[in-house]
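Q: Start with the shorter request: fold the first protein.
A: Done. Sequence, then structure:
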Amino acid sequence: MSDGLFFSLILGFFFIVWLAGGGPHRPISFAGPFITPITTVGDVQSAYGPNLSGKISAGGVTVGTNVPSNVGSDDIPNTSPYAGRISLAHFVSGIGDPNPAHEYLTLTSLPSATGSIDITGWKLVSVKTGVGVSLPQGATMLTLGPVQISPIQLQPGGTVTITSGYSPVNVSYEQSVCTSYLPNASNYQLCFSRHAGEPGYLTGNWQVFLNQNHTLWQKSDTIELVDENGRVVDSFAY
């Protein structure tokens, strides 16, 4: 018997077995832990579980993990409802500089955020050391002499520059068109008296001081911004 004839007989034998087992109507075994089995030729593969949509916003950074569309930030463990509305700039200036006045980072209320957000009492926490420092109150209208302080209300699009060191005017404050004159008290007071009542005098940006006599952030760390309930608003590693 030639090799060609023998090979043809083998193929014929398996063809008969295939027809006896159901032929083209036999289920295809594509079942597995991630896709549903196809029970009829022409069926479409689909993922197990509910139909998923949306994305998690973790620490202000949108990542590609899908969640059910009815899941809110309150359902994500230890994530603040403010996540995605307030964002830390992912850098620290002054790392390695021993002067806490030169160490700072910033946070921003995204322009898409709705309404003002009270950030007083929120904390910046070092994951490496566990040290946490609270954000203080501040002065909206900074005057020379006694000032009125209140919780810091950050408006959409507003930024906060957070310096580890001490405030040169003994208080955190909202920046204004006169802020650049602060090193000279008389010039600042003159600018204030002329422009304080004008529209646009306040910029919506804040200068916040943590009043530390030492630097806070190490050369390699993860910093978390947590809200008043200890839930993570944003974080970054560097």
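Q: Next, the second protein, separately.
A: Sequence, then structure:
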Amino acid sequence: MKFSVENQDQYSVITAEVEKLDSLSAPDLKSELLYIIKSGKDNIIVDLHKSRYCDSSGLSALLTGNRLCKEAEGTFVVCGLQPAVEKLVSISQLTSVFNITKDKEEAADLLAANRV
């Protein structure tokens, strides 16, 4: 399994179980994101602490998740960015697009704060 999903009351967490978020794994991430949105969850945390590499396909999947959550009036959070992935996100100027946190706990706190 490339991704594990943990459903909470107010959000879902997708944890990447892959070292590379690339053209081989990105379609599976997009499928998971779409499934979660279709099942009624509008807040999603994507935990990438195990992913040490990301390419344009991976970024595209993350952008898709961000768009789906916004369309559902929810919040999309990316957490656990490894240095190489964080650098790519920064170079791509997506730090202002994504909600980025250090870990799942910080992401959950961010979602809780947005619910007030």
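Q: Describe the second briefly.
A: Residues 56-71 form the longest helix (16 residues). DSSP finds four helices and seven strands in the chain.
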